[in-house]
Amino acid sequence: MSANHSLQKLLDELGRLPGIGPKSAQRIAYYLLEADAEEARRLAEAILEVKQEVHFCSRCFNYATADECSICQDPMRDTTRICVVGEPRDVQAIERTGSYHGLYHVLGGVISPMDKIGPEQLHIRELLARLGHEDIHEVIIATNPNIEGETTASYLARTIKPLGVEVSRLASGLPVGGDLEYADELTLGRAIEARRAI
Ligand SMILES: [Zn+2]
């Protein structure tokens, strides 16, 4: 394989990554070309390792390196509350606030008719199963404050409330249309503390 061919292959792969345009791909590729072999090997190994070691928690679908994630395994957590989020990165955002000590449930997306994602494509069945066999008093819905997030929240409220479990939603104050992961910790922490029943 020629040098140009190898470089092009790296540029193509880097260019596929989210948030990396052709210019950034070039910058990273040339950086790696000039870096020593050991540094490049560490990056390649970290990528392979995360793919081999990290999978989804069998209980809440957060990222985990064991059968259950570190939060589900933590005996100090309040096991009577579940905070429902769209993606594992939302768990990280809420954890960073330090305002919440319960468990989580990651849906793996939100209801979006445009993208043909309905309730059955998400981990909602598993959530309802947890409400059946875990002693849960409150479900806090923390989907993003946009149309899909709100649609998902009202679907969940309609489905869960008849089971006799309290359902709440993060307080307003989060930027509408934004993503939880970009909310600052103070605002997100306040939205959790001031959550309201729906
Ligand atoms: Zn878990």
Automatic annotation (TrEMBL):
PROSITE patterns in the cross-refs: RECR, TOPRIM
InterPro entries: DNA_Rcmb_RecR, Rcmb_RecR, Rcmb_RecR_Znf, TOPRIM_dom, TOPRIM_RecR
Any single biological process term in GO: DNA repair
Any one Gene Ontology molecular-function term assigned to this protein's record: zinc ion binding
Pfam family name, one: RecR_C
The keyword Zinc belongs to this UniProt entry's keyword annotation: yes
Residue ranges constituting the Toprim domain according to the UniProt record: 80-175
CDD domains: TOPRIM_recR
Keywords assigned: DNA damage, DNA recombination, DNA repair, Metal-binding, Zinc, Zinc-finger
Keyword Membrane part of the UniProt annotation: no
Chain positions of all zinc fingers (C4-type): 57-72
Protein function: May play a role in DNA repair. It seems to be involved in an RecBC-independent recombinational process of DNA repair. It may act with RecF and RecO.
Family according to the record: Belongs to the RecR family.
Protein name as catalogued: Recombination protein RecR
Gene: recR
